Amino acid sequence: MITIEDETLLRRAIGIAAHAVTLGDAPYGSLLTGPDGAILAEAHNTVRRDNDIAAHPELKLARWAARELAPAAAARTTMYTSCQPCTMCAGGIVRSGIGRVVYALSTEQLVELNPQSGDWPTVPQDGPVLFEEARAPIDAYYRPT
Ligand SMILES: [Zn+2]
């Protein structure tokens, strides 16, 4: 359920996205709050500036949370973001332990506004193969003798 407080923080994330445009960056912004609603960190997209495909604000905040917060504290945070996290960021968010995500535009709405945003081809993947060889470093790490 989205509350008035959620909407206020979402408006701030949208404001971060708008500010990013004035800096020459892509229009995506996010922030992370603690359980009391206090803002812990903010970020915007710097993919072009940093020449880094992973410089999405959601992934930056997920990495920040995983690095700076204990798991129990991360679980009590909420990410507010101007657009629904992409699959790359969603994976990072899961691994970070962030407890909740609230977004403004859905991916579908974003693609409707900018069809290029959804123009990601699937990459062919072949496997599994070489199981016995590939399992050796896994066994060495997780089941040392
Ligand atoms: Zn992303």
TrEMBL record:
Pfam families: dCMP_cyt_deam_1
Gene3D superfamilies per UniProt: Cytidine Deaminase, domain 2
Organism from which the protein derives: Streptomyces avermitilis
Domain (CMP/dCMP-type deaminase): residue spans on this chain: 4-121
SUPFAM superfamilies: Cytidine deaminase-like (SSF53927)
InterPro entries xref list: CMP_dCMP_dom, Cytidine_deaminase-like
Protein's UniProt name: tRNA-specific adenosine deaminase
A GO molecular-function annotation: catalytic activity
